[in-house]
């Protein structure tokens, strides 16, 4: 403190003085031509005449506060925390608020601790949400249930600072005891919401919970109603969910509403980050649609800081962390230099820190490695005169349809029907290592040969596979078992292409450019097997997502929550 | 919680439904025609179709959130907490953030506890600041020093929720150990500032402390600079400090800056409240000067709530307290009805609650009652050939000048010189009951006869008197000693007029209208003694305020902080 004050008074040199820049002041909403003095990672002065041990000439460029992503799932990128930091810090992101919901499903509390511990090894401050909905439904099998006491452990041990998106809005509204236990024990913390199309009286009832940061608005009307009711509107722009242009209309209607809004990512991919950017991308999009640049900047800096009560950041102001990004202009928001706590951590788009390989030794190595599958495991004995339920995958959607079709029966068993594109799909329970197998059928993948399989399968992330034949499927599943997860394509006994995801079956050790290339190779390989679906592995990953209607396949079999739960494979009409 | 949810879902009646109003939505900055359902003091629904055990027709009037005063000193009004509530709740104020700085000087921690305990007996939520500067200077004698450990006791015992205005900015900037002890132990709490004309490098240095809510801006330039540097700008409009119209210019320049601004009172008087209002007055002033009405409303509702982290109030939204004010319009912001936690507490300007007489038994009864003064106590032996320092009181200002003048000597003693208006003034130390007497002289009061005396004398609030003759002065001081304080005018042995202030020598038991009348009577009586000063008791109360230059009189004698401290009465040239 004495050091800070001496530098602030100008009686001692600062560690760093950035001179000659234009500060994007997100508090007074002005540009300011002033120097920034930094000592011990803290901004101690703004003005003129400071001396620094190091002095940098900003040469008329704009200096903005380090950017903050208020909601995202690191796992969606398949990047590890360190490689994620390697990808986004050079884009000007200095703080993130990740919800480790996915790894909590596959690895439980050790997974959450792992994400937290790995993040500490990077210059990217990560404040984690305690996942509030693991399992996402009673028909999923996570590594362990994250109930109230486990969430409290996350807070008490410092892994999590706030409550993750409370997705079970029917439970909140109905007054479910367990859900309210989670809400009540998060008293005093920021609690975030998940309210897709929840409006009117349901919205009001839900808000008694105090869970008041929501990223699920698709349209301006929905966002405006949520804002009125007290929600901080998280304007989402992710790799597949593009809500920004619609939702930010509420700011074009009345700019002053920005005070309780912020931009967030939710789900990203490595290639989306590489080709579009991260929070910088959102700033550019907001400005392009007509939002005032300084307001756009506030939506990714001071506003998420205020909502998450991170009083030490979000603006370039004395006493705040020296998280500073140099850009040519807000309109052309592309980071030239990034300082984190006063240390230059990225220059011209390149990280100046090492993206360490993760220490996966901290993760529970699932007993799934002991699962033994045989050709018989995959057989389905036909029922005389019965039809089968088939999931219809809808291109580019999380939603599915249910079809009832005649099965292809060979030697008394139901087999993949390549002619009619009714392919066998399998889910193998891996989180608890039981090896329990559920078998269903899917239409829409169009594989002519081989199999594709993945250990990314929302929300429980068991092993999932779709195949044109049993032999290929067995090879694919065995690959996942032997490699603790990954993405794989097979033909017969051969692995065609593979991408290991050794971290919880969800994340790779590759950096963003390598991962992006590897994913493209995987998609290409799937296309070689005949699929015309655009993102075959992403489509596959949603076929287990039991919380979304209609028919899905979990390790417990077909599930349709709209119909109340488990559904049989065979149907008699 | 189950009750709330059932009412929210519409499955059980609410306690109260306010129908047919126009909600002033300070979140989305819109008016909304919607009903408000309230259960157990909480807003559970906004919309239509709610049934209430009680239903109120708002008849097209505007419903705004209960108003919040982010900074004030209750003691300045001379009203007790309960009578203060009786005065401002009917005006639509439902939450205040008082700094009990004055009573902390006269009664120490028991005084702070008293204010807190008395406030609990009213429908006005009061969240107190822990006074950070008692004594205000080393030359003042408070009842006890409020050092770091005593401030911590205020937090720990629940009396105070945040740190009061840190006035000692030189100490903060210099890194004074004791000051920084206070700052450091308030870690995690809101810390407020006091930065009159502190700018540039000093401002930056001060802000490392994290004390970031300031009400001392007099002009737009000052406020704009503070906003830039991270300060929440408290736009002050008090009984004598009228800063609103100047400071709120920063909002006319750019409305979106409202996000980190609020309106506050600081110091009020009973008559100011009666004739102008409280926060409603500020809303009207803001709108009159061209601020958008919904933004003006935000400055007295959601914004102070956000700054002080009162997440449960500041807007009419589900889950928030049902603190609701009905007004004809924001432009004509005059409360017709006021609900606090869903209970109607004021109707048509009248409180529906009893303003209890305070339980002063909790206050330390100062041993000042044992002080015995004699005519000799007031005598000043003249020094041959020496001149005397004289305070020049400047009409309507807290500032003073120092004069050096020839004394009027009678029988070897310096006496009040009515001809030249050089009057004797006396300060009697009462907080610790030592009876220590300091004597000085003042020009500007113009008393032709008699004395005026007061127990309100910033910041230590010892007994202070100015007199045309010693006999009147003795009578006046003896009145204060016998009555534990008050305001008094005397002539010879007669008390001309008096107003007891039995609560810490600062506050009356009267309600606002009676007090206002009594104060007018006191001023009239002082004018009868010949003074032409406009607010003689207020002018008197500032003559001890040692933190403000130039010359002041405390119980330790003349003080001029600009000259380094104690000054002698006599001067030889």
Q: Topology of this structure?
A:
2 copies of one chain form a homodimer.
Chain A: H1 2-9, E1 14-19, E2 22-25, E3 30-33, E4 35-39, E5 42-47, E6 52-57, E7 62-65, E8 67-72, H2 81-88, E9 93-98, H3 101-119, E10 125-126, E11 128-130, H4 148-156, E12 160-166, H5 169-174, H6 177-185, E13 191-193, H7 200-207, E14 213-214, H8 220-228, E15 232-236, H9 244-247, H10 249-253, E16 261-264, H11 270-275, H12 279-288, H13 293-298, H14 302-307, E17 324-327, E18 337-340, E19 343-347, E20 350-351, E21 387-393, E22 400-405, E23 408-410, E24 413-415, E25 422-428, E26 437-443, E27 451-454, E28 463-467, H15 470-482, E29 486-491, E30 494-500, H16 512-528, H17 536-541, E31 552-554, E32 557-560, E33 565-567, E34 570-571
Parallel strand pairs in A: 1-6, 2-7, 8-9, 9-10, 11-12, 12-13, 14-15, 15-16, 21-26
Antiparallel strand pairs in A: 1-4, 2-3, 4-5, 7-17, 17-18, 18-19, 19-20, 21-22, 21-34, 23-24, 25-26, 25-28, 27-28, 27-29, 29-30, 31-32, 32-33
